[in-house]
């Protein structure tokens, strides 16, 4: 569990930006080719991993995920991007969001998943590259 400051801080719209939308699929490479064709983009390079990312014109994108690394009940609908994952974690926790996948961090990315009051799963992500 991540420790966060007890100091009162009001969350703001600058703490989060709408990022990407998740598309849950059985075969990430096959689905990525299908969406590339639909969106008029070149076919992406095949990957051995669970995720294909397709950037759209506005910088957001589709995260095409075969969910091999996700529990069946933890499949995010969309991603919120943040510049500070710890502040975002604090904001979600103080707002009453239920953390369903604790903070994962490495040198290029940090993320966690939470459940909103209606049961929707949302990923919060900080890109570090």
TrEMBL record:
Q: What PROSITE patterns does the record tag this protein with?
A: VOC
Can you tell which superkingdom this protein's organism belongs to?
Answer: Bacteria
Residue spans making up a coiled coil are none
> Pfam families annotated for this entry?
Glyoxalase
Q: List the InterPro entries hit by this protein, alphabetically.
A: Glyas_Bleomycin-R_OHBP_Dase, Glyas_Fos-R_dOase_dom, VOC_core
Identify the residues that the record assigns to the VOC domain, covering every copy: 17-127
Q: Per its record, how is this protein called by name?
A: VOC domain-containing protein
Q: What is the lineage of its organism?
A: Bacteria, Bacillati, Bacillota, Bacilli, Bacillales
